[in-house]
Q: What sequence folds into this?
């Protein structure tokens, strides 16, 4: 990955392309993809842009969705996303969850009829901008081995939790409930690299490190990740009354015009309803610092979000690295990306 | 474990003993311990009773606590448990969370100055009795290796999520964020058994299967369990403004009169604010059934709570198995337990 792209140019070109297509949510899609790449999560960053362009062109993603509340009460809301870009519907939903938290201290919003929303952190971090704890979940097509069995049962159903800190960017845990994300399997396939052991199985459920043979991934922490994935599916697909994992079409191998009806779930919680806001931040900072202080140069201890913060500093300065196949795909969308090459 | 005890007799004797000691919460402590043993979670069941009797006798647990709200708003509440039995303060808290959910759809309650609360499922299942999703978390003294380092960073900080099903007892995920619970390490020590590989480290942070050498346990799923454990600590210790993991005294090796100031966090969510209640139960049941349907006789697929339901059926019929050292400890508290032996 020797080529690097200027993030501000990438952001501008992506936004322009989506606006030219007439797609609502151009700002959020572009901001999510670029910030996610800057944070080092290449599996959910700018490399997905060509897919999103195809999806909105073909009609999987609605260009002019009507995102509307289906049901609403004191601390809760259900939104129908009308097949909007997930980056847009998720941003509408986390804003709604924050509004509810402002009103009663906590808000929970389920979203149905959405599309792939990229990195969950993009939404949960928006809650921190308002001083709240953020929670973001999404379902996905079934790719994770049902623990004990030999077949795919649930999606990689991620869990993201964020919280504001005193002296730095928020704490941010953003984890698939699988041992590896499917986009990372696809990345290994593309680069011709093997997978780590114990993260994937072939189509008969036997463990494999061959990325091409991988037909499903393992839940993280055996039955515990499987159980958490089921909880995420319950919060997303069941609470929103949308399709559940094994009913969802795969992201890349389905007809590109087919609508996927992804469901998400978001929460925001105002820490000031529990403890003074500045004390929350000070004590969470002290907790985080105490954990880091347990490490040494040889055995560093990080907290969730630390690797992303370090990569962000480096990439904001030096640009976003990209491999040639992914760069070619971007340039095939528009040669305007040429201007981003550093 | 050839001796079996009649659960109804154990329940009665425990309740009588605690009432005789003048301890508030006797019903909840006895019900939690017996139901937890019936569900097969021996690490958090009736074997803890002698410890609890010592704790309440010595003053670690308050006999007549005043459990009172410190702060309260639309969907949130902070309770000061005044060193009550955790089984009592947790029951008060989940009831409060359910009241908030009844009012605004969702409720979140943080509890400070509490004590060991036993199995988290005991509380989250109470939310299901009211038709709600239940969430229960607690912090604990630092026993889990800080990921990357060589020292203990966080407690085994469990996550419990429950939800009502259509045709059976609730779905119930109750998991430590460690690869194994500390009480299971103690059980292996007591029985002279080795630990599974990759679940514990010695005092220098090196992996060990020797239960006696184990000084800390591993987070489940490497950095993901560590991250989830940190989230649990944030929800419990930081939101409630109580001590955090490394400030908490160990359960068994501290002076028995020392107060531990454990913090908990509970949530209840009314699914009917999102989707009709019966539809929620029907669809969650269908999801659970579809996962089970992916299994075979040779490779069964279970969902969270299934092992506990199977053990419950067996133990409700045949009694609770107990090993001789644990039985001797119960009989040392009171010979009344003799009447429970089957």
A:
């Amino acid at each position: 990955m020797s080529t690097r792209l200027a993030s501000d140019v990438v952001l501008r070109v992506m936004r322009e392309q989506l606006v030219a297509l007439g797609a609502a949510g151009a700002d959020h899609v572009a901001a999510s993809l670029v910030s996610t790449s800057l944070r080092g999560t290449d599996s959910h960053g700018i490399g997905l842009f060509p897919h999103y362009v195809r999806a909105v062109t073909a009609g999987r993603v609605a260009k002019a969705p009507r995102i509307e509340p289906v049901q609403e009460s004191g601390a809760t809301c259900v939104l129908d996303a009308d097949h909007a870009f997930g980056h847009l519907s998720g941003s509408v939903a986390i804003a709604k969850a924050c509004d509810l938290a402002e009103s009663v201290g906590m808000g929970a919003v389920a979203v149905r009829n959405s599309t792939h929303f990229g990195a969950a952190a993009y939404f949960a971090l928006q809650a921190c901008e308002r001083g709240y704890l953020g929670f973001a979940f999404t379902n996905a097509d079934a790719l994770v081995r049902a623990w004990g069995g030999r077949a795919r049962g649930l999606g990689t159903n991620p869990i993201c939790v964020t919280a504001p800190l005193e002296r730095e960017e928020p704490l941010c845990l953003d984890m698939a409930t699988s041992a590896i994300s499917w986009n990372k399997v696809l990345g290994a396939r593309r680069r011709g690299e093997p997978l780590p052991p114990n993260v994937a199985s072939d189509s008969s459920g036997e463990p494999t490190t061959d990325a091409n043979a991988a037909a499903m991934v393992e839940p993280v922490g055996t039955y515990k990740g499987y159980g958490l994935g089921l909880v995420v599916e319950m919060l997303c697909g069941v609470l929103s009354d949308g399709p559940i994992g094994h009913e969802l079409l795969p992201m890349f191998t389905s007809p590109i015009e087919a609508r996927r009806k992804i469901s998400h779930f978001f929460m925001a919680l105002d820490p000031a309803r529990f403890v003074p806001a500045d004390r929350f931040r000070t004590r969470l900072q002290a907790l985080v610092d105490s954990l880091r202080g347990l490490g040494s140069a040889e055995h560093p201890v990080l907290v969730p979000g630390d690797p992303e913060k370090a990569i962000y500093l480096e990439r904001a300065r030096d640009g976003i690295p990209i491999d040639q196949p992914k760069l070619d795909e971007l340039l095939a969308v528009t040669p305007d990306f040429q201007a981003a090459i550093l």
